[in-house]
Every structure is written in structure tokens, then in C-alpha cells.
């Protein structure tokens, strides 16, 4: 615990953590990559990370914080498998 009674992020990650698919856009001005998703990726063993340059879908560019659009559209892939199918196969 720190002086404010808050556990450091490392305390939330242990060997019982569920599988993690992390999706982020480099141009996210709300939550920058490095101190947020980048940090989580470094702490979570075997996290599947997809990092996009921008959030662009069907020719329209959205703000970088909207990287959830890619997940909603089942776009991220890992080893040829889309994110929703990958998630459905994960077990604790």
C-alpha cells in the first residue's frame, strides 16, 4: 500500500489472473499507451496486445480513445484468430 492506502497496480496482477486481450490506439489522448495499457501489458504474462496507430473504421477516423470500436467489430487477431473467438476459448 502507498501512503494513500492504494495498492500499486502490480498487486492486482498475480498468477490467477484471467487471460487478457489488450487493445489500444497510439493516438489515445485520454489514456496514453505507456502508463496505461503498455504498463498492463508488461505486468500481465501472456497478454495478447493489439496496438493500432489510429482508430479508423470504414474510412472514418475516430478519436484514439475509441479503440473499443475494433473489439466491437471483432477486428483484433492473434495467430489468425479474432478476439471474440479467442476470448470464448479462454478458461481460468
TrEMBL record:
InterPro entries: AB_hydrolase_fold. It comes from the Bacteria. This is Uncharacterized protein.
